[in-house]
Amino acid sequence: MKHPCQRSILAGIPVFLATLAAGLSLGTGPVHSQDQGSLLLAPGDVGSGAVTIDILDRKIVHDDRYIVGVRMALEDGWRSYWRLADGSGLPTRFHIHSTRNVASTRIHWPAPSLIEQFGSVSVGYTGEIVFPIEITPRDSADDRIQLQSSLEFGICRDVCIPIRREIAVDMSTLDTAETFGPIAHALESRPLDHLMTAPGRTLSCLPIRIAGQQFQTVVPLPVWQQVDRVGVIFEDTRGVAHFAPPAITLLDDHRVHLATHIQFLTGERRRLRPEELQILLLLDARAYEIRGCRE
Fold this sequence. Notes:
The chain is mostly beta strands. Helix content is 3%, strand content 46%. The radius of gyration is 20 Å and the shape is globular.
């Protein structure tokens, strides 16, 4: 199927994760790719001083829920990765080990950026990042709320270093505030849901074909101004498939056409339902998230 386009179709960068697989591609500019075998790992104690992990000293209280901030501070030249990572990096993951008076937790992910370094492009973070953790207590009248977790992530410069840090949160040691700048900023930087986009530009994807092992869709861009770079990440919410790097075509009517190949991890050919898809759309200065497509 042919579409009028302003930019050529470009190959992208594969993103692989065992339990949540995806594909990443850049829409404009030179194509940057990195061979999956070129990942160079160093021992965790080498260069680990390039990152500092701590808990912010204040918590936000909202409707009997608490939000605390885990801060990651990277030295200049180092980068870390989002909850997905391409072949040149390691994903960031939280693992909750034990809790006291905790009914549920939720990690809020600040939107990643497109990072160009040493001729490759990745999706992740640089500088200082705050990961808000929302905690719902079992008993809101009991302030003895504790949580222990491990944080696994990678930092990369000329090599990538896998790191694991233990995190202990004791609510009684944190000051309470109705709002707190670093946490509020991290929450505001999360990818926008399509329902929050401008009226008349609903950011939903319109599948052309989603059957067998081929998937194509057209997504309206949520902004009208000129877009220099577009990044796309596909996610399978059930963890049964991964996506080949999508081909991206910017169309004349301010939409983007995406085409990819699906491989099911179970080895069984099955139909991927539209509601099982999530698409992260990275533009020049903002990220937008599509949760489920419509046919």
